[in-house]
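[agent] plan:
  1. take the single chain provided in the ticket
  2. run structure prediction with default settings
  3. attach structure tokens to the ticket
  4. add a short note for the reviewer (M.T.)
[agent] executing step 1
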Amino acid sequence: MSSINVLLRQRVTKTPEQMHAGLIVFVGRLMALCFSVTVIAFIFGILFVDQPEKQAPTDAQIIDLLSTLLVFLTGTLSGLVAGNGLKSKSKEGAQNVEA
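[agent] step 2 finished; step 3 output follows
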């Protein structure tokens, strides 16, 4: 019976605002996942990998690159959250003014 209900159920169309919100959530989750994996890899490397007394030049470059990546992801995530919050508030404010 459930397969019949699935076939008979009407397709729900999303508004452009809902599609945009879904895209923002997807992008935010993906970036947060990348951020989390990178931080966990840093912590794992510091805690569980034996480090020599002197750091190799390639290791220093990799750490510098990952640090830059983390700074970029942090800024992008905060901008994504802040920017979309401001946009939705400004649209609601404009609708309240017109009413």
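[agent] step 4 note for reviewer: Helices lie at 2-8, 16-48, 57-98.
[agent] ticket updated
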